[in-house]
Amino acid sequence: MHASTSLLVMLLASGLAARQDQAAQVLEFEKQMESAVVRGDVAFLERACTSDFSFTHGDGWTIGGQPLRVENKAQWLAAVRSAPYASRDLDSVQVELHGDVAITYGRYRARYKAGEPGRTEFTVWFERVYIRRDGRWQFASHRTVHGPTFESKRSN
Predict the structure, then answer these.
(1) By CB distance 3.0 to 4.6 Å, which of 10, 93, 111, 144 could disulfide with 86?
(2) What sign results for the dihedral spanned by CA atoms 73, 86, 96, 44?
(3) Which residues contact 155 (CB under 8 A, 6 or more apart)?
(4) Are 137 and 117 a contacting pair, CB within 8 Å?
(5) What is the pLDDT of residue 116?
(6) Other C-beta atoms within 10 Å of 15: how many?
């Protein structure tokens, strides 16, 4: 009995370790995506996104309204090509794994390189879907669940 219990514990631990490794891979891929957006690296993003990719901006849909806009892959790549961001930093991101599908949810803090005063720094809470195909993760969908929320400059 003791040997079978030990074996069960080892199997469960190895399964947990594999899931943690997959979650870490998804988080690393998500960081690479954000860096590519800041650089305007459309070549990387073209490979990283699924052909049916969609990006839903704004949270109006969460209360029965309309999002600010919904972009397909070509539209989103055109928007990030000019590298309008000075930064996009992930924060509070969690990963939920479902076989070859990963869902992340969390926040990014972003800053535009230029813009109207009081409208260059903002946060977005999101939910994203990634699909593993041929052993690599691809970005399938982004949906803003809260935001964008623009931040005013704080004095120290």
Answers:
(1) 111
(2) positive
(3) none
(4) no
(5) 87
(6) 10
- Residue by residue, pLDDT tens for the chain (156 residues) are 566 666 555 544 445 566 689 999 999 999 999 999 999 999 999 999 999 999 999 999 999 999 999 999 999 999 999 999 999 999 999 999 999 999 999 999 999 999 888 889 999 999 999 999 999 999 999 999 999 999 865 443
Q: What is the 3-state secondary structure (H, E, C) of 4-20?
A: HHHHHHHHHHHHHHHHH
pTM: 0.84
The one-letter amino acid code at 33 reads M
Q: Supply the CATH classification number for the domain 2-150.
A: 3.10.450.50
Tell me which amino acid residue 88 is.
Answer: R
